[in-house]
Amino acid sequence: MRHSHLMAAALTGPRTGPGESRTPSLLLLLFLLPHTQAAATAHRHPASEGVAFSRDVACGQRHMQGRIIGGVDTLEKKWPWQVSVHYAGFHICGGSIIDEYWILSAAHCFGRNKVTAAFDMYVGLVDLRVAGNHTQWFEVNKVIIHPTYEMYHPIGGDIALVQLKTRIVFSDSVLPICIAPPDVTLSNLSCWATGWGSISQQGDTSDKLQEVQLPLVPLPLCQLLYGHTSYILPDMLCAGDLRNMKTACEGDSGGPLVCEFNRTWIQIGVVSWGHGCTYPMYPAVYTRVSFFSEWIRYHIENTPLPLQPLPTLSSTPGAAINVLVTSLAVLSML
């Protein structure tokens, strides 16, 4: 379960998705859908302030432009780096794609003796109930939690890297986000938080991906609002629309806070904690990605790729899928 006083406390508990059962219904649907093609063109953008890891496609580029006011369902392709983190078949957190094999999320989503094998990652997903044409499902190979997590603060160092067992196939609907470098300048930015969290103070939830635009809150002001400088550390940042009483209750813990820099989207925060929708006068607190960008780079560059599964014995792709579908059907009857 989520941390008792995290932003997630304002969200409702875990929900199944997409679909009511973990297997075989969603997996069957994914395998029956047309195979996603790697249709994304490698548009190399000019040198920007963001850090890119993928060599196949440019990070922070999306093919859906325009804006939707916070609280309204988002469109497919608008936030192609969004990830749904599932545990034991339930959506529990958000995350973001930063590389073919890597997801960025919050450490508290993976702590408390959770079993790595029980996690699933979904990309290309907008509706938790229905897999789309570009939805992909992944098992987790490894979770790396920052060594300072909970060391100097009850929720400090709240960042985690998730390595997938197989690589993500990029498309217009599934793309990586750039991450903020250590020297990023955060001023005059348009920033957005996304997720499947609460959409009202009453805790109503949505199965469709939500978005909200949030201005950044200066660190001294955020410390003042929370009552003590020690509550908000340098590895954190705050965002919230205090004037219009909007905060990131729309987002899930672990989800991205992204800003646009010269037509390139860069992730500056990971949803971490706060008082949620119930107390919108308090800004949401995010893990400051720039504080950890060198740690992220080190592990992505130095962690071995997972062992790949052996090729199927069948020479026909359709036959391989039929075998898997049959196996899943048998499992469902056990």
Question: Summarize this, please?
Answer:
It holds the Pfam family Trypsin. This protein is 14% helix and 23% strand. The protein has 334 residues and is α+β, with helices and mostly antiparallel strands.
Structural notes for this entry:
The chain is built from 4 helices and 15 strands. It is an alpha+beta fold. It has a single domain, classed as Beta Barrel (Thrombin, subunit H), CATH 2.40.10. Strands 8, 9, 10, 11, 12, 13, 14 and 15 form an 8-stranded mixed sheet that branches. Strands 2-3-4-7-6-5 form a 6-stranded antiparallel β-barrel. A hairpin with a 2-residue loop joins strand 13 and strand 14. The chain is globular and about 60 Å long. The N terminus and C terminus are likely disordered.
Largest sheet: 8 strands, mixed
Q: Which geometry do the CA atoms define?
A: globular
Percent range of helical residues: 10-25%
Instruction: Indicate the CATH architecture.
Output: Beta Barrel
Strand content: 15-25%
Indicate the CATH class: Mainly Beta
| CATH H-level homologous superfamily name | Trypsin-like serine proteases
Global mean pLDDT: 76
> Given the helix and strand composition, which structural class is it?
alpha+beta
Radius of gyration: 19 Å
Uncertain segments are 1-17, 19-48, 66-72, 314-334
Number of helices: 4
State the end-to-end distance: 28 Å
- Give the quaternary arrangement of the chains: single chain
Strand segment tally = 15
Q: What's the structural domain tally?
A: 1
Q: Element order, helices and strands?
A: EHEEEEEEEEEEHEEEEHH
Function: Tryptase is the major neutral protease present in mast cells and is secreted upon the coupled activation-degranulation response of this cell type.
Enzyme class: hydrolase
GO molecular function, one term: serine-type endopeptidase activity
Pfam families: Trypsin
